[in-house]
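Protocol step 4 of 6: structure prediction from sequence.
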Amino acid sequence: GEIMMFGAYFAFVIATSLPINLPFFVIVIISMGLAALMGVFSEKIAYKKLRTAPRISALITAIGMSLFLQNFAQLIFK
């Protein structure tokens, strides 16, 4: 959910801060790409090493990543 939230924020920032007016579908494609890159980055940082770990470790990491991304978004977009 937090990756989708960042995708929406990316779309908002692209739509409001660029000096040129991009079509809506271009903004959506760019924000989807940025959100996908963010998801791949978080998977490589947090989850890759947990593939062979117990399932509870992945659950705890997912909760931690969720809290981190929520607080990071509040820090940036406040």
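Step 5 (inspection) to follow. The chain has a mean pLDDT of 93.
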